Amino acid sequence: MDARQLTVFTADVRSQIQLIQRVAQLVELRAQGLQREDAARLESVAYQVHNFYNAVEDLLKTIAVQFENQVTDTSRWHQLILQRMTQEIPAVRPAFLSQNSFEALNALRGFRHFFRHAYGVPIEYEQLFANLNRVRAVLPILEQDVKQFLQQLQ
Q: Which domain holds residue 12?
C-alpha cells in the first residue's frame, strides 16, 4: 500500500473507532439505572450492545477489504472474519485483534446473533449485564489493538 492509500485507510480506521466509542457512550447512557424489571430499558441496552458489535464488525470489514483477505464462506462469515483478524497474514498485514479482544468480541457476536434472531424472547438481565461488562472491558483493549495495528503499518 502506498503512502496515500495508507493515509486514507488510517483515516477510515480512526473514523470507525470514533463511531465505536460513540456507540459505547450510548451503551453507558442507556445502562444508567438499569433494573431487572424494566423490559424496555433492557431492550434499549441490548440494542446498543448489538450496535456496538456491528460497529466493530464494520471495522473488521474495512480491514478485510483493504488487505483483500475477505471471508468467502457466507454461512460462517461473522465467525470467520473475527477469527481472521487475530491472524497475521505474512507479507500482507499484521494481526489486528489481540486474543483478549477476540474472546470478548466473540461472546458479543453470540449476543448479537441472539438479539437479531430471538424474536419475542425476553432479554435476560444477567446475560445482558455480562455483555454490558464485555463492552466496557473490550473497548480499551480494542483501542490499543487499533493503535498497535496502525503503528505496525507505518
A: 3-153
